[in-house]
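Pasting as-is:
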Amino acid sequence: MKNKFQYIMAGVGITLLVILGALTLLLPQVQAGEATENTDGEVVTAVESTQSDSGDIVPLINQNEPEQAANITTETAPATIAAAESLTESPTELPTEALLDTIGTKDNPQTNMDIVINMVKEFAQQQEETLLYKPGWLHTVSQPYTPKDQLGSENVNSAATGELVPREELVPDSAQFESWYHVDERGSYSEAISLVVSSDGTIHQESVLVDDQWFNLTLQARGFVQAQYQMRNLSNQVILPISDVANSLDSMQTQANVKMWAYLDNEQYIVTVEESYEQPLEDSIQQTTILSGKIIYSIDASTGQLLSTEVQLLNEDGNWHLREKWDHLVTEFMPGLPEDMAQLYANALSAVGKEQ
């Protein structure tokens, strides 16, 4: 099975046209960037995880971290956050040399994978304690950016009518992916709505979760076949974006030819993971050979929130190229839906014959 990088490099990454529910960043146990192909040959996916990347997600593989590394990280993670704050609030109170050695600096990054992964797990735990395990709505907003030369197929083909729907009608430039999940005390959800919204507020795609099935109402209204607008929900357990990163790093640690490093920079914890390939991959989008892939995560060191996910590729020309970037604009908990969103959700349920 392909790993996180290989899906992105093969052109089945997180810049995909059709959403059938939640961002993959909130779908656990889904292989990174993995898309399914329906009986009509149309690629359909729930648009980062990350994972993937992105965001996309890979299954969590529990590791037996050395006890010493685990203890060091547990003891210094709160101090790391305090150090980030002190650098801003009082520049004269610098962190100790031992602390900097643990968290890493831009000139001297931390390269011990166990320490880096456990640090990210601390951030994930911080976010989970803040946002989950209480009844209400989890709200996420992410914005992708993909250079024009990195875009794949420009159209989505209706298997029913043969209609070609242009990319910009479904995912316009500067589109935002917005999702709301009705969560309970266990961090589970059975009600949700996801949107692709342009900068002027126009909804370009709308999907709703009904009876454990995601319905893309936009494609349904345009006469697409059921296999293209409906998909079973793969999991009802919320995985926060930062928790997805922790899971992904944990899994990538076991892969060959992977290196990882991290450091604190201006109140952001920057984590980079890079994989080189013994057998280079063929990029179906660029029609070139890819030698290595790199994902860069930026995390707010004071809150633990994931801020951005950036994917870069090393091509045969010897240069790194930006494949795509996701800015994670909002990850918040709200006790109830705002009035306009509540009305939109009610209308979506009615559209699939389900009343609240």
